[in-house]
Every structure is written in C-alpha cells, then in structure tokens.
Amino acid sequence: MSPKSASASDPQDLLGIDDLLGDEDRAVRETMRSWAADRVLPHIADWYERGELPGIRELTRELGSLGALGMSLTGYGCAGASAVQYGLACMELEAADSGIRSLVSVQGSLAMYAIHRFGSEEQKQRWLPGMAAGETIGCFGLTEPDHGSDPGGMRTYAKRDGSDWVLTGRKMWITNGSVAGVAVVWARTDDGVRGFVVPTESPGFLAPEIHHKWSLRASVTSELVLDEVRLPADAVLPGVTGLKGPLSCLSHARYGIVWGSMGAARSSFLAALEYAKEREQFGKPIAGFQLTQAKLADMAVELHKGILLAHHLGTRMDAGLLRPEQVSFGKLNNTREAIEICRTARTILGANGISLEYPVMRHATNLESVLTYEGTVEMHQLVLGKALTGLDAFRG
C-alpha cells in the first residue's frame, strides 16, 4: 500500500480509512463500483419509478460471474473472499441501490449461507454451484404475515407423512421469491424449528409478487404460499434444529447491511456536497454558508464513523471473533445514521431532493425498509440491552 499524503483531503475518505485496505480489497471495491456504474446507475431511476427490476436473471448471472454471490463462502464455486471484501462489495452495490444489495444479500448470506452451513453434502453439491454462478436464484422464507420480530411464533408447519415431509403455511416480504428456483423455508415440526430446501417447482408452492411498495421498488418482493408441499426426507437441513439456524443466517446478512447502508449514505452525501458547490443563492454557492457546511460536516462525521465501524466488524468476522450483539450494534447504528444522512442531504437539495434525477429520496425511501428488515431498531436495542444488563426484555 502507498499511503496518501497527510495533506490530501478526500471527501470520500476524510479519515484515511483506505489505508486500512489491501490491494485485493481495493480491487474488489473497484470491480463492484464499475459494474454498478455500468449496469445499474444508468437505469435505476427508471426501474424504481416503474417499480420493477427488469432483467433480474441476467443481472444475477453477471453478479455470479463477478464472484459476488455467496462471496465469503468457500468451495462449491464460491469466491472465498474475506468478510471485509464482502462488506466493500455490499457498500458499492447499495450505493447504486438497496434493492441490488438485497438481491445479493438474500442469495448469498441467507439462502446459500443456510445450505452451506447446515446442509448435507448432497444439498451443497446440488444447489450451491448454480447459485454461486447466478444460474439459480434463491430466497429465504422466515417472516410470516403475523410473525416478523418473533419468528418463534411462526405457523408454517412441516409434518411427517411416511418418509416424506409435508409443508403448509405462508411467508411474507420475501426478496427474490417469485424468481427463485429454490427456497430455504423454516417451519415448525414436532421436534422444533427446521429448515427445508424447497425447489420452487414443487406442487403446492406459489410465490405471488407483492406490488404497491414505496420502498425497495427496484427489487422483487413476494409472498410464499405452501399448500401441502410434499418433499422427500432429504429436503430437511440436517445441521441444525431450532431458531439458532435462521437467526445465525440473519446475523450474517445483517453484517452486509452494516456496510451497505453506508453505501446509500455515501451516495446521498456526495450528491448533496456536489449540489451545494454548484447551487447559488444570495450571490454564492450554498456550500459557502455556515449552516450548509455544518450539515455537510455532521453528515461526513457519521458516514466515516459508520464505515470505520463496518471495517472493524469485518476484521472481527475475519478473525472469527464477531459476536451477534456486535452485528446488532453495527446494524442499529449504521441504518439509523444512513437514513438521517439521506434526510439531511434532501434538505440541502431543497425541492430537487425529491426528484429521481438525484439519488437522495430513492435512497431515503429504500432505507425505510433497510431500517426495519432483518431486525427492527427496537429488536437490536433489546439485543444490546441484554448484552449490557444480562436481562432479557424481549417479552416485556
């Protein structure tokens, strides 16, 4: 590495965080940034306005060819990248749009991660290579219409019928659902919560798409309906029983959000910074006014603190030291600060801030979903509260 001059000032890196990265880290970041600039940014405003993600299968295959799917997993065609490199990729993807990062997170950190960690060797061989290549899209069925923050109350049930399993129930707000070739579905059984690998062509499996969203519009979101879906005995994930299975997958995905949310924040911050330098009022650029500079300074402080926090958690994950409450710390802080950065950026842009000609309002509305999915603010506060006090407040 060649450190930058101590006198250099880079709005994207005031703290010199780049000095913590190696050449391979930077190469991953630049690859993902270049892909997003070429394949997403020219079209994303239109996709968002239309509420569609056209060409999702082609985009997924391209992401697979870049090694972005199951990026931090090893073997089975996965890239085996470091946690920091995966985080950098998430940041660049979400700087383009949260929906694109969600596609990658659900594919790699939820569906593929569940099979990689808890699946049989036969399940891994059957599904992971195609998923890593982007040839097969996966989804992850945990949340239900009446059970989000309390997955232990799920009603989806799997019963034995001879050597088979029969699944019945519904899942809600499932990214990739209607385009997935395989679903990892969590269900209650007589022995506790179990995970099932469900080919989506199975009779009784339906995935109607959810429309009329005002957030994550350039993303495929679906309901999963399982009407007595019959599966062979070897469809169950053998490596785990209980909620620790899906919760460990969510922890892995939340780590990507810690980085990704800072990508959305960075995009909004830079848009506001450039706008402020060009927009003139009262005879000079608004960047020259004290109140605007105060906003920009506060945004920069929270942005760079958030990236530094994400990098710290990544190095802990790479060292095998990352704990779930630390992921909650990062998810809670970075999503809250990201959405506040977007809101502040919107005030600098004034009326132009609500236009899709700028990314700010799109990022802000996307982050309304990112703020609450995979653990609401309140749930992560309680995770940290338990870590601090040793007392469990989840049930009042």
UniProtKB/TrEMBL annotation:
Pfam families: Acyl-CoA_dh_1, Acyl-CoA_dh_M, Acyl-CoA_dh_N. Its cofactor is FAD. Residues 23-135 form the Acyl-CoA dehydrogenase/oxidase N-terminal domain. Residues 139-229 form the Acyl-CoA oxidase/dehydrogenase middle domain. Gene3D superfamilies: Acyl-CoA dehydrogenase/oxidase, N-terminal domain (1.10.540.10), Butyryl-CoA Dehydrogenase, subunit A, domain 2 (2.40.110.10), Butyryl-CoA Dehydrogenase, subunit A, domain 3 (1.20.140.10). It comes from the Bacteria. Residues 242-388 form the Acyl-CoA dehydrogenase/oxidase C-terminal domain. Keywords: FAD, Flavoprotein, Oxidoreductase, Transit peptide. Belongs to the acyl-CoA dehydrogenase family. This is Acyl-CoA dehydrogenase family protein. The lineage of its organism: Bacteria, Bacillati, Actinomycetota, Actinomycetes, Kitasatosporales.
